[in-house]
Design brief:
The chain is α+β, with helices and mostly antiparallel strands. The protein has one domain. The protein has 6 helices and 8 strands; from the N terminus they run αβββββαβαααβαβ. An 8-stranded antiparallel sheet has the order 4-5-3-2-1-6-7-8, sandwiched between helices. A hairpin with a 3-residue loop joins β2 and β3. The longest helix is centred in the middle third of the chain and has 13 residues. It is globular.
Length: 208
């Protein structure tokens, strides 16, 4: 699996971590990274929200089925140990999930984590839909996240459009949803977070 270049870039005010991505790692790397969680099947919506204005900056899905992946449309988080294929990140252990959240949570953004329990069949369908969706264009994170969800039983009414907040507000009405709030006081520039994660460090975050 090729190692990616870590790019220093501050997050735009309205697009926390939205950017084009056309990565396609090889099948052996994807297979080797496969992680199976012992948690029940679920679909989790991550929403990156600005501080202090509360604007929506990014939408992504963590899907826990026969394996656990993150669908990160137009996202910029990466790690040398995590293979990617067109916005689908494989091998999402608890540690890498924390890395992903820590990358987005900083003094200018917090991360909302909403989880909905689903059947294994629905979770695996979500993974297949994410894999088939292709790379998202810049700023289309909410559009493509919603497109993946609308093809799933129980998620057919996911709103379309460019607003991560609109998608989150709808997701929070689903049966059985649980919420977590992740906040961190790290500086706004996330380049150093990538470097620390590359070196095996975890900067940590606060859950509220």
């Amino acid at each position: 699996m090729k190692r990616r270049v870590f790019i220093a870039a501050a997050l735009p005010a309205t697009l926390a971590a939205c950017g084009a991505d056309n990565v396609w790692d090889d099948a052996e790397a994807v297979k080797a990274a496969r992680f199976v969680s012992n948690e029940p099947p679920s679909i989790t919506l991550f929403t990156v929200i600005g501080i202090p204005r509360g604007e929506g900056g990014h939408s992504a899905l963590m899907i826990n089925g026969s394996q656990r992946v993150i669908y990160d449309p137009a996202g910029t988080w990466n790690h040398p140990s995590i293979p990617e294929r067109h916005d689908v990140l494989y091998g999402i252990t608890d540690n890498f999930k924390n890395f992903y959240i820590d990358y987005h949570a900083r003094e200018t953004y917090w991360v909302a984590e909403e989880r909905v329990p689903v059947s294994r069949e629905v979770a695996d369908l979500a993974i297949r839909r994410a894999e088939a969706n292709g790379s998202a264009n810049k700023a289309f994170c909410a559009v493509e996240t919603s497109a993946v969800l609308r093809g799933l039983p129980g998620f057919e009414n996911a709103p379309s459009g460019f607003s991560p907040l609109k998608l989150r507000n709808w997701f929070m009405t689903l049966p059985g949803v649980t919420s977590k709030r992740h906040m961190d006081g790290d500086p706004a520039n996330n380049h150093n977070v990538l470097i620390r994660q590359k070196n095996g460090e975890f900067t940590g975050y606060a859950r509220r």
